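User: My instructor asked us to take a sequence, write out its structure as tokens, and then describe one feature of it. I'm not sure where to start. Here is the sequence I was given:
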Amino acid sequence: MTNELLKLYDRELREQVEYPEAKKEITQDVVRFKREAPGMSFVSLTYAQEADLKRVIQNELTHFNPAQGRPFTWKVYDHDPLPSLGEKLTARGFEKDEDRGDVMIFDVSEAPAEKFEMNGLDIRQITSREGLKDVVTVLDKVWGNSNEWVYDRLGGHLQIPGYLSIYAGYADDEPVSIAWTYFPRGQFATLFAGSTLPEHRKRGFYTGILWKRLREIRNRGARFAVVEAGDMSRPIVEKHGFRLLTTVWDYVWKGNDSV
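Assistant: Let's start with the prediction itself. The structure tokens for your sequence are:
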């Protein structure tokens, strides 16, 4: 079953997926997504054989020309059949981001019905650009930086029917927890954020918003929820029944020489 899931994951979330703010290009060697700078472009999937990797890497460097202000990253997954790809990227000026993403998957069709029952918390869906101020408030307090990008990116995505669902949890009418879900076409929905103010943790907000999103995924006919988890969040989602599918590493081009 795992091999079939990996094939489905690669097909739907690395090859067929579309991002509204990015242009997808499929060549004989790679699938690439291009965003306007300063947005990060990336290579999502590598078709090339081992013997061709040096040529393919040089082709992508020439195409993106990151030395001229077009940053991009190359995604390498543990299940990719290219054992030397990471090594060759590093040799060519890429730097491996050690903050790996463990791709955790949950089959909503197998969840017991009682898990989808609401827990009495004040959890609301955000459907307008104006409502995004609550998302920004939580992100700013949790991560200590400015998250004004939310208004443009998530605000734009909210205009696409059925593409993005955002939820916030409230205590005394103040936002204390947020998370969102994307619904690309196919059997997967992808989970993001999951941030709660420290003083409101262990009160059920993360779990409540998670299961509200999983219920929506089930009701909308997708089968799998997917999240890229780090060291902190992996144990949390594992507790709720998510299991490891694969791991993804970002190789970001850091070279200063001419491509």
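For the description part of your assignment, you could build on this observation: The two ends are 42 Å apart (CA to CA). Try explaining in your own words what that tells you about the chain.
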